[in-house]
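Reopening this one. Same input as before:
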Amino acid sequence: MSTRQENFPVYDVVVCGGGFAGLGTAFELSNKGMKVIVIEPMPSVGGEITRAFNLDLADNGSDLTNVLGKMLNKAGGKRGNRIDAVISELCLLKMAEKRIDILHYCYPVGLLKSGNSYCGVILAGKSGQFSIQSKAVVDATNNYLVSSYSGAETPEIIDVSRYFSFYMNGVQNING
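Same output, byte for byte:
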């Protein structure tokens, strides 16, 4: 499959991963005047919010959480430290407006190289492969995916057990 050039501007930084680590990085770089795009394979940013069972957000955690906490209070999405997942995602998107670009449903599949330097990322989406040029690429994926494309030595990913809970509201015991 060939990689085509889309009509994206050249970014200062491409951040691969739209979780809190990626968003925090993107917002901080944006504050320094850099043009940033976040690449997120899922339909929303801040994925930890929707996957977490206990949604607590303490004040004074970081600049990102402080701003998010204030927005959540204003929008009625925070009671004590407990936050609402949907309102949180909407607030994160609102925080990103006019500061950073976000590209959903795309996966990093390689790095662009010019000579001995990396100059962007190759992405795959529903319409095929395309590239975005940048001065730097940040790997904020949860599995060091982008770093592995560069040949960098990455920490071993440890397989951990996963626990799932099933809530069966309104289920009647038919055996007795």
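So the earlier flakiness isn't reproducible anymore. For the record, The two ends are 59 Å apart (CA to CA).
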